[in-house]
Amino acid sequence: MPANPRFLFLDKVVTIQLQAVSDYMWTEATGKRTPIAGLGTFWDDPDTKTDTVDIIDIL
Fold first, then answer.
1. Contact predicate 47/39, CB 8 Å
2. Which pTM does this prediction carry?
3. Where are the alpha helices (DSSP H) in the chain?
């Protein structure tokens, strides 16, 4: 959901702060920063991949 234009500056500042906290937590636990598009996830989250059909198997 896009930020309200009236609060765009606040949204950017808070996003930067959350990224910094996430990077700190990830670095403490894994030695690496938060993965790209990984904000809001944790290093020990269970893998939620679902079984899919490989298109090569169908052909």
1. no
2. 0.69
3. 8-30, 55-58
